Structures are given as structure tokens and as C-alpha cells.
Amino acid sequence: MEVTRHNFKEACKLLSQALDKASFVAIDGEFTGLHCKHKPNFYDTLEERYHKLRMGSMDFLLVQFGLCVFRYDGEKSRYTAYPFNFYVFPRPVNRHAPDIRFLCQSSSIDFLSSHNFDFNKVFRDGIPFLTNPEQQRLKELVLERHSQNEVANNVARVETSPKFVSPATNKAPMEVPEEEKEFLDQVCKDVEKFMPDKKKANLSLPPCNGFKRKLIYQTIYAKWPKGVHLDSYPVENSRLKYICVSRASEEEKKKLDELKLQTVMDEVEEAAGFSKVIEILSSSKRTIVGHNMMLDIMHTLHQFSGPLPESLGEFKAMTNFVFNKVIDTKVLATSHPLKDLIPFSSLGELKSEVHQEPFKVPKIIFAKGFPEYTSQTEQLHEAGYDAYITGLCFATMANYLGSLVKAPPKGGRVSPTSKLMEPFMNKLAVHMINELPYMNITGLDLQPDRSHIFHITFPVEWKSSDVHHLFNSVGPVQVSWIDDCSAFVALNRKDLAKSVAELPTSPLYTIIPYYKYKEMWEYMRDPFPAQELIEEAVSEHDMAQPLQETPPPPSCELRGLKRSHDSLQGVDGPDEEVEELTERESKKQKPMNPK
User: Fold this and answer.
1) CB-based burial label for 583 (10 Å; 0-12, 13-18, 19+)
2) Rounded CA gap, 21 and 72, in Å?
3) How many of the other CB atoms lie within 10 Å of CB of 505?
4) pLDDT value, residue 386
5) Torsion-angle region of 104 (φ positive above 0: left; ψ -120 to 50: alpha; else: beta)
């Protein structure tokens, strides 16, 4: 179902109804760009990766939000799908609302246009939105202006001279320019003629700009301090407004002002727009399923809930508050035992894999009035379709895991709240970080051993071949460039890490153990300790201490880890908790372990 600002209210009602008794909800987003200035690195920490995405990606805009509700019917052993495709654009509702500036990445725009993305629909008919803090600020401004109007009206009732306090600014009256006096004289004549004419309920003055409207307000209220009520209304397809003059007693004027205040406050509520969808999802407490959904979650929270916090821990808390149960199908597809069956895990490739043996796609029908997607209607990168495919892949993979246990679930269907799904709950896939495949929203993150990784600086003329040549004596290495004169170097053989201390020294380059380099950055706000750390690390390379004995910084120490796959040395080890759930009667399987 395509949703724009024209049918948004109806869609919200349908969404609320669909969420009743829903099994899970799949989501997907399309953006105007992905990465700006902070490029990811294979050896980022999770804190660093979050910071890079927060600082370098949130200036792009989420312009299409796909959502597909899946409701399971146990009697008929099938799912009913309710796909929604929301077009989102931050159109200012009034001159006081945020006028958002955003970035576009040419490659992303080209990619979307090549998949027939309708940009006109986004910009023309996109659903506006305000975050909760923006809504609150706008409401406070409305109340402040209402209070100023009341003060101005009270002053006008006792003022008989042309002096007037501007209702918008609560300042002294404006001086009437010579060229506007004729215009105001005509307005006064029209109002004077209207007042005794009981046949006319109101008088509409000619449309005009904001400056002229202020002059009209101060002139009319000064000349008729009682018995007159003025209100401004927009002119269709124009920036101008017209003033409506009506007769009203003081009590009637008070009621009209209160009605106007309520109308404006209702407009602010309506301006919240797409943020209401996120509130509906959050309050439903349904499991949210996505594919490689880190950016989807970050953009959703940033645009529709509030600014992203600075620290990773606060981001996790914010995510868990809004969406308390999330499952990333990328984590699921790249974990044992599924990763042995799924060689490639992009959404399109995953869709192809789950349609083959040994997987069995569950029966899915579409609710009445919703679009029907089939294997012939390939619409990848339309957010609603991608959300549907994400949900289909999740249900298929979950059911396959259920087929591996000794006592498969009734009907072969595995719920997202099943114990089988616990190892994958609240883990977001992290792109391109070696040995850190996911971020744990509600638990401890993995702490991989990086004692075989080194930070190296070198002349800008150097190429990868120069770095490989320098480390030739310690075997093959992987080079991950940071900039033109620095990189991370990872040894293929971890047991040769201490041999790096025996490499020849030179003023052309420095080699620092990974942990020392990260420790240095913790002190970057104080340049003196940082310089000492650099000197200490370089001296270590000159044979001060064996590199394998370099301790990790305090932030990397293990603290009360409960699961084997959360420990430093247990990244590739067995997981007994999951192994019990996936044990076959005839053949022992590898554990389901998201790593």
C-alpha cells in the first residue's frame, strides 16, 4: 500500500488494526546517501563505528520507509502480509517549523533512480514529520504567541490612540509608511461600512503579506477596541493570507481565540506526521525484523524520535526503549548453521537462497486492499517490497532452524519470540568490521583478540606493496588504509605478533600495537599524555617489551561474560546453550552462534 500525506490518516488506522495479533513486523528504509566523510575501517571499534555513522551519515535523509506486518493464522498454517510503503519528506508545516537541510550522494540518487524510484512523489506528496523535541518546542511557541496575543488584545481594549502592541512580538506599534496609508484608509472604510450591516456575518479583506497584516491588526484594534474580531487564513496556492473581520462580544472573542489555539495545537499534532507510525510500532511491542538494519534503526530514531546520543551505550538504551525486540536477518543468515547454506547474504541473494532446498518458504497471502508481491514482481529497493522480502526470509530461516531440533514446533512454524531466536535477539549486523559481526543492543559486545594488529605511519608516497614488503618476514598481512600515510596491518598468523618487534627501525615509519594506538586516542584531548604514549609505543617496537604482553586498555577487559561466544577467546568456539536447541538425532550440527 503506497502511503503519502493524502492517505496517511487512513493508513495509520489500517496499521493499528494490522498490528493487533501481529506475529512480527519487517522494516526497510531508502536513503539519499550512505556515508559522507567518515569512512568505515575493518578494525574500527563498535564505539568508533557508531560515531562515524552518527557524524557522517545522519545528514542524509530517509525518504521511503517500508513496513510489512505479518500475522500468522495457526488454523490455516499461513501468514497474512500487510505491506506499507511510506513516502517521507520534511515539509515545514509553518514558518516556525524546522526547515531541514539534508545531503544527497550522487551514487545513491543514481542507484534509486535506476530502480524507478519516484522522487516527485517524495517531494510533492511525502509525509511530513517532527521529532518529539521539535513537537514540544513548536507547542511552546504556539502557547507563547497565544499569550502575547492576549496581552495585545487587553492593551487594545484600553487604548483609544493609534498606539498598539504587535500581537506577534509584544513590541511597540509600527510606524505606518506613507505609501501604506491609502491602503489602510480603504480597509478602515470597508470595516466601518461592514460593522452596522447585520446581513453580513463577516468581511474578507484582500490578501496581503505579513507586513500589511500587522498594520491592519494594529490599526483596526486601535480604532475598534471592542466588538471586532480579526483572524488570518491562508490563500490556496499562495504565500499570502487574508484577514477575516467579524463582529464578536468579549466572551465570543475569548471562545474564538481558544478555538483557534486548539486548531493550531491540533495542526502541530498532525505535523508530527510519520513520527506517529514509529510511536504506533513502539507501543505495539511487536518484534521488529530488518536486514542489515543498523542504518535503518539509526535514521529512524534520528528523524522520528530525537537526536542520536553521543555515546554507544546511550544509543543502545534509546534503541531498546523504542524497539525492545529486534532481529537482524543478516546476523541470522551469517551464523551457524545457516551460513554454511547461504554463501551470500545481500537481501536479493538471500531471497534466492531461501527459495531453494533445504529451505521451505511458508505460505503467505496478502490482506485485502494491499499489493500482492510475487516472485515475478521483482521490486528490490522499493522499501515496502524489501520489507516484505525481509519478513519472508526471516520466517523461512526461522522455520528451518525449527526443523533441526529433536521436537520440531507444531506446524513447523518458529515464532520470533521462540527460544530458538534468543541467540539472535537484539543483535544488529555491523558492516565490515573483522571479528565483530554484530552489535549487542542488550548485552555485552564481543571483544576480539587484536594483538596481531598494528598501526603504522609511513611516507605519503608509499603503496600497499611497500607495507607488504616491510612485513615480509612475518608472513602475509592484510592492510586496511586509514589515510594516505597510515594504515592498520593485520598478521595472518597471530602467533608471529611478537616477531614484529624484530623488524628494522627507521625514521620513515612508526609501528604501534593496536591496543596502544587505541589507548593513545583515549587521551587525545590531552596532547602531552598522548605524545608520551606514542614515544612509549615506538620504544616498545625497539625491543622494550614483547608485544604479546601488551595489555589491552581497561575498556577492553572482560567483565562477567555469561555466554561462550561473548568471550575474547570464544569467538569461534561452541555455544552449548544453542547447541542443545539444534542437536540432530542423526548428526551433530555446528552451533547457531551469531558471529
Assistant:
1) middle
2) 8
3) 13
4) 95
5) beta
Position with higher pLDDT, 161 vs 251:
251
Burial of 256: CB neighbours in 10 Å, binned 0-12, 13-18, 19+:
middle
At 316 the pLDDT is: 97
| In the block, residue with C-alpha cell 486492499 | 369
Q: What is the mean pLDDT of residues 424-444?
A: 93
Rounded Cα gap, residues 394 and 396, in angstroms: 5
Residue 234 sits at φ, ψ, to 5 deg, of -70, 150
Task: Using the CB atoms, write b or e for 192-220: b if 16+ within 10 Å.
Answer: eebeeeeeeeebebebbeeebbbbbbbbb
- How does 425-443 read in b/e, with b if 16+ C-beta sit within 10 Å? bbbbbbeebbbbbbbbbee
pLDDT at 217 over 60: yes
Most confidently modeled of 221-235, 264-278, 289-303, 527-541? 289-303
pLDDT for position 556: 34
> How many Å is the Cα radius of gyration of the chain?
32
C-alpha–C-alpha distance, residues 380 and 357, integer Å: 23
Contact by Cβ (8 Å): 513, 449: no
> First vs last Cα of the chain: how many Å apart?
36
- pTM as predicted: 0.76
- Examine the pLDDT at 147 and tell me if it is beyond 90: no
Residue 47: strand, helix, or coil: helix
Longest dimension (CA), the chain: 102
CB atoms within 10 A of CB 472: 11
CA angle 429, 434, 436 (to 5 degrees): 45
CB 26 within 8 Å of CB 290: yes
66 neighbors 28 (Cβ within 8 angstroms): yes
Read off the pLDDT of residues 456-478 as tens digits, 9 standing for 90 and up: 999 999 999 999 999 999 999 99
Name the residue type at position 414: V
66-95: burial string, b at 16+ Cβ within 10 Å, e else:
bbbbbbbeeeeebbbbbbbbbbbbbbebee
Extended beta strands in 385-443, E state: 427-429, 438-440
What secondary structure does DSSP assign to 207-265, as a single string?
PB-HHHHHHHHHHHHHH--SSEEEEEEEPTTSS-EEEEEEE--HHHHHHHHHHHHHHHH
| Residue 424: HSE in the Cβ half-sphere, 13 Å Cα cutoff | 34
- The string of pLDDT tens digits covering residues 373-391 is 876 666 777 999 999 999 9
**Mean of pLDDT over the chain:** 83
CB atoms < 10 A from the CB of 557, how many? 10
CB of 513 within 8 A of CB of 537?
A: yes
